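pinging the channel bc i need a second pair of eyes. not urgent but kinda urgent?? the chain im working w is below, pasted from the shared doc
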Amino acid sequence: MVTCGSYARREASAESDLDYFVIVPNFIQSGKQAETASEPAWLQVARSVTGNVVPAAPATGGAFEWMESPDTMLSNIGGDGDSNAKFTRRMLFLLEGEWLSNEAEFNSVRRQILERYIRPGMADHQLARFLLNDIIRYYRTMAVDYEFKTVEGDAPKPWGIRNIKLVFSRKLLYASGLFSIAMTVDHARERKIGVLERLFQMPVMDRMIDICGLAEMGPVLESYEQFLLRLENKAVRKHLAGLQPDERDNPMFRELKNEGHHFTGELMRLFERTFDSTHPIRRAIVF
């Protein structure tokens, strides 16, 4: 069983839900994920048990509270069968996933995914470009999905709180992926995989500190803490969740959004300080 989201990042509050999915050997997903008739009994038990620990359930119809197999995680990457839910599980498994049970199998699957992205024959001077491109694709997909889910969906999701999360936690996750890929340059293939295994074992913020240093991370940490403190407040979360897109000038939303712009600027400055203008990551994220 794998968890993602705020619990995996070690920043959950009493209001957080528990995003999880279960890796099952030889399971091939078919039909709609939401068809509960095809659920095995043990998955219903798992839902009940986790619900007793963390009452807030994952969003219905999404990528969580479901099953995945190693084979489907490793195949058809970028192809017609790479559904939004499958793509989400694969990316979050790598970038922020944490095991809830069976640590050895969790580590084995992560290793297999990294070996799929970093193929034999890659030159030492190269970045792990295949994985980098999928991380970029995932971040941009989240941004596009946000528009659909909050505006066009059959049951539009809360607009304000999703907007703020996109500016802070989703952006931090993306940055941690970019910074990690940058560390794969000038290493042989086996070492590239080892670097990412070590970095992806860490919670997202710890990973950033490991790469950049605690002192350099100071402004980013301070800004992100403001985000966490506000979202830990039940009244603030409720207020943000109730906002509509035409309420962009709401003082509470505007305050957090402005802090989000500051956070983005600090991440950009951190990127420029950590990787000089000649580093291959600079060119790779643009072209």
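so Residues 30-37 have pLDDT under 50 and may be disordered. and The CA atoms of residues 19 and 58 lie 5 Å apart. — does that match what u expected or am i reading it wrong
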